[in-house]
C-alpha cells in the first residue's frame, strides 16, 4: 500500500533553472530576435526551467535590468485558444488578480507562431517560490483563488476549450473496463512496481470506480464557467507567504468550477500535510485545514450548496480519471511515460476522504 501524505515531486518549493547548451540557446535567441527584437537575450544567459517536469517549456532570460519568461507550446496548440487565455489573464491582472504580465510581440500580439509550428508567449518573470504549504500561506492562497474565480465568473470566450470529462461517462466506463479486463496481463503490460501497486489496490480501485459511475450523472449537472484547472503547488508562486502569481495561463478552460476547486483543494491541502509531516493519524488536523481553505475560497466566490457537497466526489473523480489516463497509455500504447506519478495518484485515493471529511455534506466514507 502506498503511504499517504508523504512528500512528492510537488513538495520541492524552489524553482530550478538550468543553463542551456549553446545550440539550444541559440535557437531561443533566434525566436526572440524574430518576434521580440527589442528583447534580445545573450544566449549565455538563457536558462530552462525544470528538473521535475517531464518536458519543461519555459525559458528565463534577462534583458538589461528586466527578467522575462518565454513559453513555448506544442505544434497542435490552437493559437486562437492561447490568445483567448492570455486576453483573460490580462483582463484579470488589471483587476488585481496576480498573473504575469504578457509582453506583445513585434506585431502587437501576445502569441507568436514560429516557423517550427510552435507558439511562443513572452511574459514578465515573477520572482517567487512554489507553494510550500504553511498554514498562513494556505489561507492566503485560498483567498486568492476565491478572488480569481470571482473575476473569472463573468469571463466568456467561444475560443476557450470546454472540458466534457464529467459528461463522458461512457468513456470513463470503457477505460475502467479496459483496466480490469486486462487484469491477468498486468505483469506483461506494466512495469514491476506499477503491477505491484495496482494489484495491492485492486479492491479499492473497483470500489471507487463503481462509486464514481453512480455519482457522475449528478456531478455533470454542476455549473460550468471559465476556471484555472491546474492550480497545483508549482502553478502558484508565493513570496513571504503571500500569493505572488498564478502561472500556467494555458490551463484556463471552461469546466465545472467546483471540479477545479476540488482538485486545487486536494493538491494544496495535501502539500500542507506533507510540509508539516502529517499522516493518517492526524486526520482531524488535515480535515480542519481543508475546511478553512475552502472557507477562504468562499470569501471571494459564492459556491452553491451542491458544489460544496460534491467536492470530495469531484476530487476522487479527477484523480481516478488521471489514473485511467496512465493505465490506458500502458495498455493501448505500451507508453510508460507517466508511470512515475502513478504512485502519487494511488496514494490520493486514501488521502481525499481525509482531506474533505469536515466539509458540509461530505460523507467521510471509510475506505480500506
Topology (elements, then pairings):
Layout: E1 17-19, H1 22-35, E2 47-49, E3 58-63, E4 66-72, H2 79-94, E5 102-103, E6 111-113, E7 119-124, E8 129-130, H3 135-152, H4 169-181, H5 186-189, H6 192-200, H7 202-219, E9 224-228, E10 236-239, E11 242-246, E12 252-256, H8 257-276, H9 283-298, H10 305-309, H11 311-333, H12 342-355
Description of the structure:
- The chain has 368 residues and is α+β, with helices and mostly antiparallel strands.
- It folds into 2 domains: 15-128, Phosphorylase Kinase, domain 1, CATH 3.30.200; 135-355, Aminoglycoside phosphotransferase (APH), C-terminal lobe (Aminoglycoside 3'-phosphotransferase, Chain: A, domain 2, Alpha-Beta Complex), CATH 3.90.1200.
- 46% of the residues lie in helices and 14% in strands.
- The protein contains 12 helices and 12 strands.
- The chain has helices at 22-35, 79-94, 135-152, 169-181, 186-189, 192-200, 202-219, 257-276, 283-298, 305-309, 311-333, 342-355; strands spanning 17-19, 47-49, 58-63, 66-72, 102-103, 111-113, 119-124, 129-130, 224-228, 236-239, 242-246, 252-256.
- The strands form 3 sheets. Strands 1, 2, 3, 4, 5, 6 and 7 form a 7-stranded antiparallel sheet that branches. Strands 8-10-11 form a 3-stranded antiparallel sheet, covered by helices on one side.
- The radius of gyration is 21 Å and the shape is globular.
- It starts with 16 loop residues before the first strand and ends in a 13-residue tail after the last helix.
